[in-house]
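Retro notes (design track)

What went well: tokenization of the new backbones is finally stable.
What didn't: we kept losing track of which sequence belonged to which structure.
Fix going forward: every design gets posted as structure first, then sequence, in one message. First example under the new rule, 287 residues:
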């Protein structure tokens, strides 16, 4: 498990491009038959991935957590951006198709990941936060029935925003949030930009009560997203490629503009789960 320390905005404004990428960019995700985990001191979020190809992969705590098992004191959110696969939790198997997800509650001991087809492996994207109580484990489907009797299934809360005229026509699909999928602090969802739109989260905002991580994907090899971060009056950028993630401290804006439409997963942890609790930044105030 890779460890990342917190960063002060007074220091970040002096960082080089290389240093910005070292601190905030998460690269080399979705390696075959590897579970990759990055532990950030910013609200103690863990961002990672599991790509089972030839093997079934087991999630363990590692020495860094000083825990008997990964979810001993943690909750876990998962969204699959690859082929269909199975997540097995304490002996119960959940089939997770493309762009379906799971919330896995604290106390889940034995968690494994497998793919249906090695030629089209699952790509499980992971966000985890410290937890103080156990919330129900849930299979989350963007489409589907409210419940199928064996596995709890939740329809994702979809919101359409923006317009083609402002190049930000997008659909937000909320997977984990209060009133839909219960959690201690973790929120998670996916935003898909429509063809011709390239801007996300603009006009931008900050939220001191929680931090955020973005995963950009559904991008061809020659495409990129210019991810904007930093204090509103000290903005910086990081060039993002397909299937890379970026850590956004609570004091930082988090917005992006791509060379074409793309999709991104957002994950938030912190003390406030109010999705609309944002400190908006006027376009005229950005520097």
């Amino acid at each position: 498990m890779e460890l990342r320390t917190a960063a002060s905005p007074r220091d970040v404004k002096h960082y080089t491009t290389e240093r910005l990428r070292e601190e905030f960019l998460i690269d080399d995700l979705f390696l075959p038959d590897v579970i990759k985990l990055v532990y950030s001191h910013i609200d103690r979020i863990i961002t990672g991935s599991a790509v089972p190809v030839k093997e079934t992969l087991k999630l363990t705590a590692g020495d860094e957590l000083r825990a008997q098992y990964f979810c001993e004191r943690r909750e876990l959110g998962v969204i699959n951006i690859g082929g269909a696969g199975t997540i097995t939790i304490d002996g119960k198997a959940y089939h997770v198709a493309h762009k379906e997800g799971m919330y896995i509650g604290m106390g889940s001991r034995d968690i494994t990941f497998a793919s249906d087809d090695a030629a089209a492996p699952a790509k499980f994207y992971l966000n985890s936060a410290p937890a103080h109580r156990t919330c129900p484990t849930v299979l989350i489907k963007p489409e589907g029935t409210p419940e199928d009797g064996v596995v709890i299934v939740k329809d994702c809360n979809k919101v359409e925003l923006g317009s083609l005229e402002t190049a930000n026509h997008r659909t937000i699909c909320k997977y984990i949030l209060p009133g839909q999928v219960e959690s201690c602090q973790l929120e998670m969802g996916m935003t898909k930009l429509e063809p011709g739109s390239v801007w996300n989260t603009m006009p931008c905002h900050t939220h001191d009560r929680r931090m955020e991580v973005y995963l950009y994907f559904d991008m061809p090899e020659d495409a990129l997203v210019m991810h904007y971060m930093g204090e509103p009056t000290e903005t910086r950028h990081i060039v993002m490629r397909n299937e890379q993630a970026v850590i956004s401290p609570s004091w930082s804006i988090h917005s992006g503009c791509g060379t074409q439409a793309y999709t991104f997963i957002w994950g938030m942890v912190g003390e406030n789960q109010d999705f609309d609790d944002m400190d908006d930044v006027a376009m005229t105030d950005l520097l």
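Added context from the reviewer: The radius of gyration is 18 Å.
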